[in-house]
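Narrative of activities, Objective 1.

The group set out to show that a structural description can be obtained from nothing but a protein's sequence at a throughput compatible with the screening campaign. Below is one input-output pair from the validation batch, recorded exactly as produced.
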Amino acid sequence: MNFLTELLNTGHNRKNFACGNEMLDNYFRYQAGQDVKRKLSACFVWPEQETGIIKGYYTLSYSSIPLDSVPDNIRRKLPGSYTSIPVTLLGRLAVNKIFQQKGIGKLLLIDALKRSCLAGHQTGSFAVVVDPVNKQAELFYKKYGFIKLPDSGKMFIPMKTVEKLFV
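Output recorded for this entry:
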């Protein structure tokens, strides 16, 4: 499978990345590399070929969500013996300001879902979960089929839905 992104490494210039959200900028500049080293998350970047400027990035890691936080219509189809279900966490997704409004966010999301789907074939992952940083991010994920988890700001898309995108 071809991907737009590559795993963050020390050759990537992170210091000039700016998406307009201080939390996401600071994470990428100062913490992402350490999280990768510690295996807390995988950070994928999309560098521009000519300049090496990072167009955007996202992080993936494994997580779980309580079974009782899943909507009833989906929970009924899952074994009641589970108290939580395994998911892939799309922890952060950000697009550099100079590349915003060009469809980069959508392409990064597709790339992240493709990686999640591939990994999900080898490990258990019921869904991809996101925790939108603001209303704008929530609307972005909703546009691509993510469903709000009750009693939580988190959203998810079932892996069965993701798989349909890539088969």
